[in-house]
């Protein structure tokens, strides 16, 4: 079954063709990240305007690279939530137009479910159940993937998402957007114990909180400035990365231990972080757990993951009419019957 995936929830305009949720035939991505970097973060209106310009070429490229005509597709899957609403609506409306013109089924896909499905493209043998840390610019969840379309959220951030914390700390340190890659790069030259940073308290056993950590970085930078000293950017980047990676890895491993999970996974943009991957890998090996990581190219936003999850949503009968709307927020365990 050939599914076209369409993704436009943030600053990537993407289209991809995937067969049976597992085999990638093509993946086209246009990004406005360089333009967004001029403003230090994503400006929603700029994102929407770039999606409008890029979506048709992205879909045409994905179809051409896969050697597939619209008539040969079995369904059209699109990110319909969560995300910047003006950005989401561009993809939803394009997918609706294509579904209307071709008569193909329209499959709404939750963006975070998509991030998890990126794992199916990297690990053809991976099947639920498994435990997954989904960490992106907007979300940090520890999710039990019970079935391909059934999820239970065990923990979440109570304030900033992990990626958001990287982005804000990068800004404080004068490093470019997006913060994850730039903090990581700076950290390579730094001492991870150069600055003592706090572990903020979070209410639930698998919840996380990063706001206090971000503020601690800001305070240290301001105090250094007041003393007329320069903050040691590589040391601060390394200390921050070490702390956030330790918190995320510990929470995931604790959830695995308590729930008796046999397989652990990472997903989302932050899953590209080398230190996080190393810490989770060490912990999984010690505990005798299997670890599946998405290939780095599939951690960030892409449409292959949307087409992959679209396959499982379609198989579960989760299609939508041409009245489909987009949503800025929606829990990962939403009821498809209510959409
Ligand atoms: O999943 P994603 O591409 O988009 C959202 O759904 O938000 O995640 C983007 C986030 C950004 O905050 C970015 O700074 C972060 O992922 N990120 C990283 C790394 N690469 C991207 N964070 C830590 N380390 C990285 N290597
Ligand atoms: Zn994402």
Key features of this structure:
single chain, about 350 residues, alpha/beta, five-stranded mixed beta sheet, 10 strands, globular, binds 5'-O-[(R)-(carboxyoxy)(hydroxy)phosphoryl]adenosine, binds zinc ion
Give a structural overview.
The protein has 339 residues and is α/β, with parallel strands linked by helices. Helices cover 43% and strands 19% of the residues. It contains 10 helices and 10 strands. It has a 5-stranded mixed β-sheet with strand order 3-2-1-4-5, sandwiched between helices. The longest helix has 27 residues, at 233-259. The relative contact order is 0.19. The model has no long low-confidence stretch (mean pLDDT 97). 5'-O-[(R)-(carboxyoxy)(hydroxy)phosphoryl]adenosine is lined by residues 10, 136-138, 163-164, 166-167, 178-181, 184, 268-270, 272-273, 300-301.
